[in-house]
Amino acid sequence: MVKIDPERFAQKPRFSTNPIDNLRFHARVSPQYFYPLAMTLVAVPVLFAFLPIRRKYFYPDHKRIPTQYPLPSESVEVAGFEDA
Questions:
Q1: What is the pLDDT of residue 38?
Q2: Three-class secondary structure of residue 2 per DSSP
Q3: Number of structural domains the chain divides into
Q4: Is 77 left (phi over 0), alpha (psi -120 to 50) or beta?
Q5: In this structure, is residue 32 part of a structural domain?
Q6: pTM, whole model, 2 decimals?
Q7: How far is CA 10 from the centre of its chain?
Q8: Which of 14, 21, 27, 63 has the least C-beta neighbours within 10 A?
Q9: Domain, as residue range, for 52
Q10: 3-state secondary structure string, the chain?
Q11: Per-residue confidence of the chain (84 residues) as pLDDT tens digits?
Q12: 70: in domain
């Protein structure tokens, strides 16, 4: 039987008593969950703050791509191609 030394393993810190240690613990123990969640929590407010700044200082929104063929505003007379 293998004996496990309990002092080798750190106890999970409680979030309510020390949130910084809890975040460090999860960053070490399960980084595959911690870092995507951290990036998401940071990215959402940054996007909402960056869009108005981009529109004001850098470049405006692009023009919409036309989805219809532009029709002429005045009537067009076609001569020489009638079948009659």
A1: 93
A2: coil
A3: 1
A4: beta
A5: yes
A6: 0.47
A7: 34
A8: 63
A9: 9-58
A10: CCCCCHHHCCCCCCCCCCHHHHHHHHHHHCHHHHHHHHHHHHHHHHHHHHHHHHHHHHCCCCCCCCCCCCCCCCCCCCCCCCCC
A11: 667 766 666 666 677 778 888 888 889 888 999 999 999 999 999 888 988 898 889 888 888 888 888 777 888 777 776 665
A12: no
Find all residues with CB under 8 Å of 41, minimum gap 6, and list them.
none
Which of these, 23, 27, 5, lies nearest to 13 by C-alpha position? 23
End-to-end CA distance of the chain: 103
63 found inside a domain = no
Backbone angles phi, psi at 80, to 5 degrees: 95, 0
**Matching residue, tokens 């929590």:** 41
- Output the CA–CA distances (angstroms, integers) from residue 38 to 2, 13, 27, 45, in the order listed: 37, 19, 10, 12
What pLDDT score was predicted for residue 43?
93
Neighbouring C-beta atoms of residue 27, cutoff 10 Å: 13
